[in-house]
Amino acid sequence: xxxxxxxxxxxxAEIKEQLATKVVELKRKGCIPHLSxxxxxEDPASKVYVGMKQKACxxxxxxxxxxxxxxxxxxxxxxxxxxxxxxxxxxHGILVQLPLPKHIxxxxxxxxxxxxxxxxxxxxxxxxxxxxxxxxxxxxTPAGIQQLLLRNxxxxxxxxxxxxxxxxxxxxxxxxxxxxxxxxANATVTVCHTGSGDLKRYTKQADILIxxxxxxxxxxxxxxxxxxxxxxxxxxRVDDPDSPKGYHLVGDVDFEHVKEVASAITPVPGGVGPMTxxxxxxxxxxxAEKSCK
Length: 293
Ligand code: NAP
Hints:
CATH class of the largest domain: Alpha Beta
Distance between the termini: 51 Å
Oligomer: single chain
Radius of gyration: 19 Å
Bound molecules: NADP nicotinamide-adenine-dinucleotide phosphate
Strand content: 15-25%
Structural class: alpha/beta
Shape: globular
Largest sheet: 6 strands, parallel
CATH architecture of the largest domain: 3-Layer(aba) Sandwich
Number of strands: 11
Strand order of the largest sheet: 1-11-8-7-5-6
């Protein structure tokens, strides 16, 4: 039997509808939630992501501006801009789109964003709070995966969750969230990476498998146990001369074959991606609610 599809687009739409109601309430109190997005350079994928974020904000009534800087922007000028946004009371959330051009130290820029405006959850203060289980802005992709699971009746509590990937924006924070003694988490977590050797040894044992390696076909059907819930975070461009863009997107999971073994699975696109954007909106709204109190 083919796996149930965990539809991120649909789940994200439900979340956005709920957020839109909250935006109306906030505006009634005279508070207009505002997200400032900074885009440096011409990276095509970044331009697409920023466009999607701006559109999503507009759709639910969050005010959003995209500040576009050219690729040669000096680091000090970018730092000055972030300082200005930090000091602007009308700005509730600041997002600096990554990757930044090589001559700019991303760490320096991200660390300058005030933790209470850090709606991406990348500031060390938010990362630290997450690590010790305190309230913080959760990074959007891990938060989106958790919501996708819970809102589709997959509760990680008591499950064996295997995460492939330990990056600072996906694998590591998601593993951290899932092992905490909290509702919607409290899982037993295994984290795999390039030093793990035979991945199958671990993935085969998973009740819930998260693929966040950034490589097509990292997870094949023989690596998945029957009934496993498979979340594919990967977004990989594969050359495709038949497509008008010259490429198409695939995840890290061999979807066609894995869906015959898994009990539930996310598609790419339309799985984790829309959830990430929904969580950015949610964090921005939270930032506005706190600041307007
Ligand atoms: P990343 O920084 O490149 O990290 C990849 C991680 O996977 C690393 O920890 C790496 O291990 C591990 N890895 C790579 N190949 C592996 C293999 N063959 N076996 C075991 N582990 C392997 O990537 P990322 O930023 O986490 O992103 C991962 C994927 O998710 C990318 O395709 C990205 O585009 C996508 N993504 C999607 C969204 C979304 O909203 N849908 C958001 C963020 C990212 P080492 O640490 O040992 O190098």
